[in-house]
Amino acid sequence: MPGWRSQWRLVLLNLLTCGLEICVAAGITYVPPLLLEAGVEEKYMTMVLGIGPVLGLLFIPLIGSASDHCNSIYGRRRPFIWLLSLGVLLALLIIPHADVLAVHLSWGSSRSNQALQIGLLILGVGLLDFCGQVCFTPLEALLSDLYREREDCAQAFAMFSFMVSLGGCVGYLLPALDWSGGLLAYYLGGQAECLFTLLILIFIVSVLVTMKVSEEPSCRPLVPEAGPSNAGRCGPRSCCYVLQCKLRLLKSGPLLCLLRTCWSMTPAIYRSYCHVPRVMRQLCVAQLCSWMAVMSFMLFYTDFVGEGLYEGVPSAAPGTVLRQRYDEGIRMGSLGLFLQCATSTFFSLVMSRLVHVFGSRKVYLSSMVSFTVSALIICLSKSVLLVTAMSALTGFAYATLQTLPYTLTCHYHKEKEVYMQTNKTKKTHKSGLSITQEAVCLTLDDDTGDLNHKSGYANGHVHYDQEYYPSQHSQNGTPPGLGSDDYDKRGVGLDFAILDSTFLLSQVFPTFFMGMIVQFTQSVTAYVASSAIFGAIGVYFATHIIFDQKDLKE
Q: Which of 207, 404, 522, 541 has the fewest CB atoms inside 10 Å of its own CB, making it the most exposed?
């Protein structure tokens, strides 16, 4: 994928990724003060922030599988991106105007007015977090559809990671700026209205640009043909024929496709979570432990710096020395997270070159080892400078987790006959000779150690074969890709959904258990110590990831 035009196209394709991360980072950062001002207690505020990840865990597999089997005339992935983007846009409109909407929708009582305002805020926060996080799954699947070759896929997801990191940097900086003194805030009504108006403009531009650049081919649904059996009653120009065509177009829409998936395939989809291929199972376990290490660090790092490093007290009265120390520590912790995003942005740019020079295994393991060592140093050190430098170094692991697992998943799906064999014999020649997994590996183990498939696209336009564009139903009427042993028709969107579920689960677990751990140890150092322990566990499971065919034989 040489040339500046291809790189520029990648930037435009991932512009929505950057816009989503900006909106989620800035919106979720600005939401806690709004909830507290509306009267939500602090212990319930963390529960509100957990609504989005919990809903994402429930619906991500449905959306991923539905996008694999959607036959919309607008493509497989883009209809779901449009729907989820609409949810993000609606949330950005609700959150800053919840008080105004509550006044117009309530019946005059101040108590009901406040309750309705809190309800609208909770709705907006949940919608923003849910739609924003889930929308990454069809975006990742769209990239894998457009860039099928391993090197191109690696570059595409390296750019994806870069845009996520860049969006995080911008998203964390925007709420820190004072918008209340500007002319725009004077006309819009204040800091929150000005910030969210800017987020809406950024998001709309990013959606339009990405949807324009992503030239996903349409899959026209099958239309009934006027055969001899129905020639007399349903000819090509008859009302019956036109009605059947319109009904098929309606059924291929994304919303009905998602509802149909929820109704008919939900048990099979969740069974597929328990019957994933061995390569995906090992990758997901390592990904879950690694994300739990990174998210445990990111969620509680500022509180660790404020209470543990600066010895401040968050519950102290404003203006006191203890409260000033805590606030100063929070600002220094925010600087550390910003440097983490900046480091992640740098490593995302050089990720393809690092993988080319050192290989995926060494890059993945070195990133998690560096994270674990950095977390241990942060636990033991009292130097603000050293702790900030180590927090910046953790961006290497963040960039790796955003890139390599998705590249490996694309590689697994491209070479399913090698990486997704079942215990039963799956491929049979016409002569009756069966091909086992060992035979496939021995046959394909050439000097390069890799398969060289022809490109699935030309001039920027993707071409689907039967492997990537499965039929809507198999011969026995069962939706494809959902059998416990039939991995040949397993869609890449479902496996991307599983990877994204590990990210969401890594946010849910620390939210519920970290408070109890800190209360038991009576020290906020337990936050970073727990992330170091999870990092060490992640390093162990990362050694079991299948990176190439040699790992299969071992």
A: 522
CA distance 43 to 120: 19
Q: Show the CA angle centred on residue 443, arms to residues 439 and 447, nearest 5°.
A: 140
* Residue 534 structure tokens: 């999870």
Longest dimension (CA), the chain: 90
CA distance 542 to 554: 15
Token couple for 142: 């769209």
The C-alpha atoms of residue 126 and residue 319 are separated, in whole angstroms, by 34
Mean pLDDT of 482-495: 60
Kindly list the distances between the CA atom of residue 373 and the CA atoms of 344, 368, 533, 542, 543, in Å, as whole numbers in the listed order: 17, 9, 10, 16, 17
Coil, helix or strand at residue 248: helix
pTM: 0.69
Contact (CB, 8 A) for 46 and 189: no
Q: What is the dihedral of CA 146, 149, 151, 156, to 10 degrees?
A: 10
Q: How far is CA 388 from CA 200, 201, 303, 328, 454, in A?
A: 33, 33, 14, 14, 47
Q: What is the rounded CA–CA span in Å between residue 416 and residue 400?
A: 24
pLDDT digits (tens, 9 = 90+) for 244-300: 544 444 444 555 655 665 555 555 555 665 677 888 889 999 999 999 999 889 878
Among 27-31, 78-82, 309-313, 363-367, top mean pLDDT goes to 363-367
CA distances from 300 to 308, 525, 540 (A): 11, 10, 24
Please name the residue that has the structure tokens 């079942």: 422
